[in-house]
Amino acid sequence: MLMARSVLVTGGNRGIGLAIARELAAAGDAVAVTYRSGEPPEGLFGVRCDVTSTADVDAAFDKAEAEHGPVEVVVANAGITKDTLLPMMKEDTFTDVIDANLTGAYRVSKRAIKGMLRMRRGRIVLISSVVGTMGSAGQTNYAASKAGMIGFARSAARELGSRNITVNVVAPGMVETDMTAVLDDTYQEKIRGNIPLGRFATPSEIARVVRFVASEDAAYITGAVIPVDGGLGMGH
């Protein structure tokens, strides 16, 4: 019988992150989630953490490891948007998004690697976006942060492969979350018109792909960017 793996999902209290956490827990893993505000989700071990703080990230790992043992799977999902057209974008609007999304993934991955190197195994999954390869007007900051994850992951995959640590990117398209629910209906219909499958994804559809990438079945996949976007970004 396989032992439950210790898993940490950042931004795991809602939306895609919560769906990922619940999917991995259902697969038998011992899952901890980080959250920045609100309350931890019911049935999961929650740790308050802001991924823009190295001290917070270190403390979150310490608590997760005290509860479940060394983290074997980490999912860097926490992120923010601050959409503004480039001519009006203030520098801190750009750097805040880079710090939370891309540098946050670096902080989380770097801390996770410490234990993984000792165990000589591990799974790092970064949640990027179709926007990272296609671009999106008003999202130069967000697109740059999500595109940066790809170069980061592929470089880390080359560094860590000899230690049986895989690093992969899952790139969702449009997903039914609180973030997309606020979009104007007309705009939503316009986006659906560009998606070959004609609909948004559910968070669980993203979560199931993450579950696969984190599983033993994906042991020979590393440095990959896996789109889960209904065909929206094909060719990019």
From TrEMBL:
Residues 5-178 form the Ketoreductase domain. InterPro entries: KR_dom, NAD(P)-bd_dom_sf, Sc_DH/Rdtase_CS, SDR, SDR_fam. Coiled coil: none annotated. GO terms for biological process: monocarboxylic acid metabolic process. Keywords: Oxidoreductase. One of its GO terms (molecular function) is oxidoreductase activity. SUPFAM superfamilies: NAD(P)-binding Rossmann-fold domains. Belongs to the short-chain dehydrogenases/reductases (SDR) family. This is Beta-ketoacyl-ACP reductase. It comes from Sinosporangium siamense.
